[in-house]
Design brief:
about 0% strand; about 80% helix; mainly alpha
Length: about 180
């Protein structure tokens, strides 16, 4: 396998993991922490009578951190992966290039939404910690509006990243014969 294909494969794997990992962290965090009724001591009495809401609040903190971190990994690795994937293809059908470009654009949009959603989540958490009911309510509403879009774009980024890599590597240089 030539070095470009190897580097493209590695960058592509990191890109796909950066797209999918936060979703897996969120699923695990919300499943476990909500069921446990995890408590954030700084939230005080905010969720005193609702253990599931308290667990969701804590899970949101965990998931938000994962999404923010991986948003930056995606942004850093996706362009490298895209260039290497394009470079590794022997034949570059127009539709394959369009798929690579679409994967890059969707990943960039996913990055923007992930960072924005994580920022709103942090503002909501800060308002809860400060006991600011009105501010927390505003941030929670904004989060409710942003979250479905962030979720959709993150899924689309994962799917297009996987598809772009599969297509590009299917058109990649074959293995060399001999030692």
């Amino acid at each position: 396998m030539n070095r470009t294909v190897l580097a493209a494969s590695l960058a592509w794997c990191i890109w796909c993991l950066a797209c999918a990992a936060p979703t897996l962290v969120a699923i695990a965090a919300f499943t476990v922490l909500k069921r446990m009724g995890a408590v954030d001591p700084a939230a005080g009495a905010w969720f005193a009578d609702n253990a599931a809401a308290s667990g969701s609040f804590v899970a949101g903190q965990v998931a938000g951190t994962a999404f923010r971190a991986m948003a930056w990994v995606k942004l850093a690795v996706a362009p490298v992966a895209l260039v290497l994937l394009a470079k590794s293809m022997l034949r570059r059908p127009r539709w394959a290039i369009v798929l690579l470009v679409a994967a890059g654009v969707i990943t960039a949009a996913s990055h923007v939404l992930d960072v924005r959603t994580a920022s709103v989540g942090e503002a909501w958490q800060a308002a809860v910690h400060a006991g600011q009911h009105e501010g927390a309510s505003v941030h929670a509403s904004t989060m409710d509006a942003l979250h479905p879009w962030a979720e959709r774009f993150n899924g689309a980024a994962s799917l297009t990243a996987i598809a772009a890599g599969v297509v590009a590597l299917a058109h990649a240089a074959p293995r060399r014969a001999g030692p």
